[in-house]
Amino acid sequence: MAARIARSFSSGARLSVFRSFSSGGPAIPPLTYYSAWFCPFAQRCTLALEHHGVPYEWEEALGWTVRPSSVGEDGRADEAAYHWKSPALLAANPSGMVPTLVEPATGRVVKESLVTIEYVDDYARAHGSRAPSLMPAEPAERARARELASEINAQACSPYYSVLCKQERDDQLAAFDGLVGTLRAFGDALRDGRKFRLGDELSIADLALLPWAYRFYVFEHYRGESFAIPRAGALEHYHAWLERCLQIPAVRRTCPDKARYLEHIAKYATNTARSKVANAVRRGVQAHEYDDEKD
Ligand SMILES: N[C@@H](CCC(=O)N[C@@H](CS)C(=O)NCC(=O)O)C(=O)O
């Protein structure tokens, strides 16, 4: 079993990862990486870093503090969990979101998880990575891959937060049904025997979904058996894809411990988390529609 990167760090802790996945490969300059062990968005970036063996210095840049919530905010919680954010993260990215990458040599900042995948891919390849690219080579296929990743984000990742943060069963079920429909379409695309969403290599389309696919187990625990991802039809292909991805050592290293994560996500399941995505869902929009001012 590969060592885990996404351990439960204490806030502000730093970890240097200088292992090169493509051992014997070129020396790639390390990146500063503001991350959080529990964050599936950040896991997208970690997956790209690990795929290419880009060295990085990880700072655990988010934590949680529990304090009284404003009275009557959702009619349930007297106390809520708010993010602590590291000063270095806020200096690099004032919206205080992880993942955030900084190039130490230039001070340039890269943020937004899907963008970080493409950036890490370009950065690694510019420095001679021998790992396969996470993006297709042909321009129209690259455009389609971006579009697909963004659709997966809106239609499979965002509903995850609605299933958890919504407290009415009908709302939870509606979000879950939409999510399963998206996974079915994902599985359908794998029917031709391809290993990954775009073909026989891992790509941005897989990395967009993988951190949430790994986390869907939390639904059964917090919402019951009817929230298990079904296995029939095209979904068999989706489950086989997930198993295949989890066989890859560079993927396994990025996955947080399931028991610790289950404990962490209780804040969302009880609607006491006050993160931007949770606030967006409480405001009645999708998680990806969070607004830096309102949420
Ligand atoms: N659109 C962002 C979302 C990232 C995100 O929501 N990250 C969470 C941690 S899982 C975060 O930084 N939360 C801080 C906050 O809510 O203020 C991305 O794709 O990178």
UniProtKB/TrEMBL annotation:
InterPro entries for this protein: Glutathione-S-Trfase_C-like, Glutathione-S-Trfase_C_sf, Glutathione_S-Trfase, Glutathione_S-Trfase_N, GST_Omega/HSP26, Thioredoxin-like_sf
Gene3D superfamilies: 1.20.1050.10, Glutaredoxin
Pfam families in the record: GST_C_2, GST_N_2
This protein's GO CC annotations: cytoplasm
Domain GST C-terminal positions: 138-268
Domain GST N-terminal: residue ranges: 29-128
Entry protein name: Glutathione S-transferase
Lineage: Eukaryota, Haptista, Haptophyta, Pavlovophyceae, Pavlovales
